[in-house]
Structure formats: structure tokens, C-alpha cells
Amino acid sequence: MIPTLGLVLLAGVLVGAGVYLVTDRTFTRIVIGLALIGNGSNIALLAAGGAAGAPPILGTDALSSIADPLPQAMILTSIVITMATTAFMLALAFREWILTGGDEVVDDVEDRRLARRAATGRGSERIEDAPETEDEDSGQDEDQADRDDKDEAEGEDAK
């Protein structure tokens, strides 16, 4: 019982540290956080598999003493998925480093623009068909707000 408790605590610490790292704004920490979450889930599956038993070969021991092979198969599948996700995120981080020279994740200007359009109730309109209106928050038209967002993003890229 005690080794299982230790595994559960270790899984919780790994997942907690992984979630903390994923919420950071750098790709490197996000990749490490996703790997920690994957390893924590593997350990949680190992702890959920129960106590170790005899090999799952039929006809050698009583069924009650045989280990359940399903958690082991799930862990192997999870390892492959974690490895593929980590490799993909490393490729994205490398691409970001090549393009910008850093690994900080910046805000997407287009996402902010779409969120502002949805908040004003004009999310379903096409941009070409939408009339120019004053932005309630700043008293400027939406196109000027979009240009300000782009200028702000370019300023962050230059840093």
C-alpha cells in the first residue's frame, strides 16, 4: 500500500509541475511541462494497475496471482503519444526560434481582433461587409484598433 501512495504522490507532483510549466510563456517550458504531464500520467496508470503479480501467461499460476496486462499496454501507448507530442512541440519551438530568435509565445493579434468582434456581436459578418463603427472603449474605429494591435505585436517581436 505504501509504494502505491508514493507513486500517486509522485504522479501528482509531476502533473502539478507540468501544469505550472505549461502556463508559462516560453516554448521550452511548455515542452518540458507536457513531458512532465505525460510522465506523471504514466506513473498514475502504473499505480492504478495494482500490485505486481505473476506474468500474465495462461496455465502457469492461479488467475488471482496474475498481473493485469492492460495498464502496462496503456502505459506503452501513453509513452508513444508523449514522445510524439514532445517531438512535435520541439519542432514548433525550433521553428519559432528560427523565425523570431526567441522562444517566447506572443499574443495572436488576429485572436484579439476576433474576440473583440464577437464581443460586439458582429462575429458572423464578413470583414468586407462590416460597416466601420466606433469602438465603445476607446472612441476609435475598429480598423484603427486593429492597426494598433498589429503595431503592438510588431513592437513585442522587435524586443
Automatic annotation (TrEMBL):
<dbReference type="GO" id="GO:0005886">
    <property type="term" value="C:plasma membrane"/>
</dbReference>
<feature type="transmembrane region" description="Helical">
    <location>
        <begin position="6"/>
        <end position="23"/>
    </location>
</feature>
<comment type="similarity">
    <text>Belongs to the CPA3 antiporters (TC 2.A.63) subunit C family.</text>
</comment>
<keyword id="KW-0472">Membrane</keyword>
<keyword id="KW-0812">Transmembrane</keyword>
<feature type="compositionally biased region" description="Acidic residues">
    <location>
        <begin position="130"/>
        <end position="159"/>
    </location>
</feature>
<dbReference type="InterPro" id="IPR039428">
    <property type="entry name" value="NUOK/Mnh_C1-like"/>
</dbReference>
<keyword id="KW-1133">Transmembrane helix</keyword>
<keyword id="KW-1003">Cell membrane</keyword>
<feature type="transmembrane region" description="Helical">
    <location>
        <begin position="73"/>
        <end position="94"/>
    </location>
</feature>
<dbReference type="Pfam" id="PF00420">
    <property type="entry name" value="Oxidored_q2"/>
</dbReference>
<dbReference type="InterPro" id="IPR050601">
    <property type="entry name" value="CPA3_antiporter_subunitC"/>
</dbReference>
<feature type="transmembrane region" description="Helical">
    <location>
        <begin position="30"/>
        <end position="53"/>
    </location>
</feature>
<feature type="region of interest" description="Disordered">
    <location>
        <begin position="117"/>
        <end position="159"/>
    </location>
</feature>
<protein>
    <recommendedName>
        <fullName>Na(+)/H(+) antiporter subunit C</fullName>
    </recommendedName>
</protein>
